[in-house]
Amino acid sequence: INGNAGATGQVLQSNGAAAPSWVTLPNPYDNTLVFTSSADVVVGSGNSLLDIPGLSYTFTLSGNAKVLVQFNICSRAYSCFACSYSIGSVGIIVNGYGLAWFTQTMYNDYYYNLNGSQLFDLGPGTYTIKLVADGAGPNITFGIRGTVPQRVSNMIVSVIPK
After folding, report:
1. Taking a C-beta distance cutoff of 8 angstroms, is the pair 55, 103 a contact?
2. Strands 154-161 and 32-36
3. CA–CA dist 143, 111 (Å, integer)
4. What is the pLDDT of residues 78-133, one digit of tens each?
């Protein structure tokens, strides 16, 4: 533009009736955070929703944004004599509201990876996003931690400003 070729990585931005300008787009990974569970939680029939420790994030938006939440939660259904299967669920809670649920039938004494993702459109304000566990049937452990990569429970939150 007027002899200015822009810098590496810049793109042209239309400014309406005014002259276009060179801008650098934000890196979407600058606003991506990874959280790892800090403890296990055991859920059984009759429990209320239980937070999965370490998988919560509070942030403030000054404008509109898309927020992508992804997770992988390692879990294990307990074994018991003459028991049926368990049903385990992980919920994504935004400011106290369960906005997405992911459910798995779990057979006794097996390990499972419950995973999912959800994209939210959020406006300006302060938000807390957390993962909770719920279950029915024999007890289920969620958030199992360990050195084996398949048994690491985590949540990834990407905030993408509009």
Report:
1. no
2. antiparallel
3. 11
4. 888 888 889 999 999 999 998 899 999 999 888 898 999 999 999 999 999 999 99
User: DSSP 3-state assignment of 50?
Assistant: strand
CA–CA dist 153, 161 (Å, integer): 27
> Which residue is associated with the tokens 């002899």?
3
C-alpha 142/C-alpha 81 separation (Å) is 21
Which residue reads 């106290």 in tokens?
A: 96
- Choose among 7, 32, 38, 36: nearest CA to 22: 7
Listing DSSP states for 107-129 in one string gives -TT-EEEEEEEEEEEE-SEEEEE
Assigned token pair, 137: 């049937």
Does the predicted TM-score (pTM) go above 0.85?
A: no
Q: Residue 104: beta bridge partners?
A: 88
Contact 86, 112 (CB under 8 A): no
What is the end-to-end Cα distance of the chain in Å, rounded? 26
Q: Nearest CA to 69 among 51, 53, 92, 47?
A: 92
For 53, the 3-state DSSP assignment is strand
Q: What is the spatial distance between Cα 127 and Cα 75, in angstroms, rounded to a whole number?
A: 27
